[in-house]
Automatic annotation (TrEMBL):
Residues 200-209 have a biased composition (Low complexity). Residues 175-210, 351-378 are annotated as: Disordered. The keyword Nucleotide-binding does not apply. Residues 1-23 form the signal peptide. It comes from Gibberella zeae (strain ATCC MYA-4620 / CBS 123657 / FGSC 9075 / NRRL 31084 / PH-1) (Wheat head blight fungus). Residues 354-363 have a biased composition (Basic residues). This is Chromosome 2, complete genome. The chain crosses the membrane at residues 64-85, 243-262, 282-305, 384-406, 412-432. The lineage of its organism: Eukaryota, Fungi, Dikarya, Ascomycota, Pezizomycotina.
């Protein structure tokens, strides 16, 4: 009797567990506690993924990609409020006294006098402050070597962006018109140069044996005063057709999830059940309506952030090869020390993009940013942007609640399908912004001599990496000497002045016997280019003050001597 009672006692817990188990779908038991809630809840998070994506948005295609199978819903709401919300709504999220520059650093693609992009030694970063960086758009014009043998050495022209557009070297893609007075061939004829070959070496279909000769270099700088856009121009941007293709893909993917959920609920062959009961009548309508409303709200919030910047695109006319170079001085920005570097894009640029704070919805805020004012009144967007932000925020909140309630009443496979769509669109967003993972090329420069080294590189431009040159097979470019020093970029030597503390002979054993193919300019041409770059960039060298003082002293001395010398200098002999 005792033995039988012990056996019964052992089976009591097991029988209790068996009795407590519900005869329901195992998928519902598991997924309702995890995946069915994970899909809508996961959509609330994903802060960094969303911020990275919206910070590079430039049109409605980006907004559609952001909205389909959305992730980072809270981030989208907060981002739109920070950029375009009214003060009371900013106070709700704890951003009542936030300077617009803080939002610009994190959420916009633009740069200004308060926000800059600099190279920190490992990658390009955005930070608050005035950038110690100048941007040069380098246009290289080539012609067949056989047609240019009797022509002078290539010329260097330094000019502002507005002048380059007026002369026809660059066209503004937003305006869509070329200046009538400004064809490239007309400008060349005025300067006595022949009409260039309309094909650059990179686009030429000529035979491999045809040699191209550099005919002209144009160095162009935007002198507006805003920090240059490095991230947008250091790597090829996503093609607009590609963006619209992914936007269409995301739309079909989201509609496909809703279509599957409808079939799973109403199709006679499927008609899945939940807990062995038919799915509630409210489930699918709430899921479909909530999803569509949520997508609409995400598109509006994405549009608020995207429209906060204005992008202008430029393109060189046919016959020019475009390279981008950024020179960075040693400077402390926001308590961070950035060393001198020359940063340049790896490939030729098809278009040049400039992003600035937008003023299309109200007053031009860029005029007030340099003062550093943090007053909310100075950063208020227009009423239109306020309305769009409030509307988008309300639509998102309503849509998410309806969407969440609907998914809770659906079969577990509907939640899994939505979760899969979210993960797929995360991969799409990462692929669209794949260029952010690529760092530009860079070279360290001695502090204070950035313009000097860049100008000197023009003398050997055929072997310079920033120009896309492959170098000379007989010349080792940037060969390192014992001790880590580099060989000089060109064959320039100081031949006067007697002895010097600099031992130049140590470089002789690595220098080529003949000048490299890139050394095509004489010293005076480079000095003239250096002078023009100084005026264009506004950078003074470390010896500028001494040089000016010396020039003034020489001028004063000559003036004094001229007074003392009689009209007939032969009388002094």
């Amino acid at each position: 009797m005792t033995g039988s009672m012990s056996v019964i006692a052992k089976w009591i817990p097991i029988s209790t567990l068996v009795t407590g188990c519900r005869a329901s779908d195992d998928g519902d038991d598991f997924s309702n506690n995890l995946f069915s809630d994970l899909a809508p809840l996961l959509a609330l998070f994903g802060e960094r993924v969303t911020m990275q994506f919206v910070s590079q948005s430039e049109g409605w295609a980006d907004n559609i990609i952001l909205a389909m199978a959305p992730i980072g819903i809270i981030t989208a709401i907060v981002a739109s409020i920070r950029v375009g919300g009214p003060p009371w709504l900013k106070a709700v999220i704890g951003r009542a006294r936030e300077n617009l520059a803080v939002s610009e650093v994190e959420l916009m693609s633009s740069t200004s006098k308060e926000v800059c992009e600099v190279w920190n030694g490992q990658e390009v970063v955005r930070c608050m402050g005035l950038a110690p960086v100048i941007e040069f758009i380098c246009l290289l014009q080539f012609a067949d070597a056989g047609q240019s043998d009797n022509q002078p050495n290539p010329t260097i022209e330094v000019l502002k962006l507005e002048e380059a557009i007026a002369k026809g070297y660059i066209k503004d893609l937003d305006n869509g018109e070329m200046p009538k007075t400004a064809s490239t061939s007309e400008v060349d004829e005025e300067q006595g140069n022949p009409t260039p070959n309309p094909c650059s070496p990179t686009n030429s279909h000529s035979t491999p044996t045809t040699k191209k000769r550099l005919q002209k270099i144009c160095l162009i700088r935007d002198t507006s005063g805003d920090s240059p856009n490095i991230i947008l121009n250091c790597h090829p941007s996503a093609n607009r057709r590609e963006l619209w293709l992914f936007a269409a893909f995301g739309t079909f993917l989201q509609l496909g999830v809703l279509t599957y959920s409808g079939f799973a609920t109403y199709h006679p062959a499927l008609k899945f059940q939940k807990d062995k009961k038919p799915i509630e009548s409210y489930a699918y309508p709430c899921t479909a309506i909530g999803t569509l409303v949520l997508v609409l709200g995400m598109m509006l919030c994405g549009h608020v952030v995207e429209s906060s910047t204005d992008e202008k695109r430029y393109q060189a006319v046919a016959g020019w090869k475009t390279r981008m170079v950024w020179l960075q001085q040693t400077k402390t920005v926001s308590d961070q020390v950035f060393n001198s570097h020359m940063v340049y894009a790896k490939d030729d640029r098809q278009t040049i993009t400039k992003s600035r704070r937008s003023n299309r919805h109200g007053k031009d805020k860029s005029n007030t940013t340099h003062t550093g004012s943090t007053a909310p009144g100075g950063d208020d967007p227009s009423t239109f942007l306020n309305v769009v932000t409030i509307t988008g925020t309300g639509i998102i909140l309503c849509g998410f609640v309806i969407h969440f309630v609907g998914l809770r009443g659906m079969h577990w496979s509907a939640s899994i399908a939505q979760l899969g769509a979210i993960l797929v669109m995360v991969c799409v967003k990462a692929w669209v912004r794949r260029g952010l993972a690529k760092s530009p090329e860079r070279e360290p420069l001695p502090s204070g001599f950035e313009l000097d080294l860049f100008t000197t590189s023009l003398g050997g431009i055929a072997t310079e990496a920033w120009s896309g040159g492959q170098g000379n097979d007989n010349v080792s470019v940037n060969t390192r000497l014992p001790g880590g020093a580099k060989t000089p970029r060109n064959e320039w030597r100081v031949v006067t002045g007697g002895s010097s503390s600099l031992n130049v002979s140590e470089f002789n054993h690595v220098s080529a016997a003949e000048p490299c193919d890139g050394s095509i300019f004489d010293a005076q041409a480079l000095l003239d280019a250096r002078k023009s770059l100084t005026h264009l960039a506004g950078w003074k060298g470390p010896a500028s003050a001494e040089a000016v003082s010396l020039a003034k002293a020489i001028e004063c001395t000559l003036d004094a001597v001229n007074v003392c010398i009689p009209n007939n200098p032969q009388n002094l002999i």
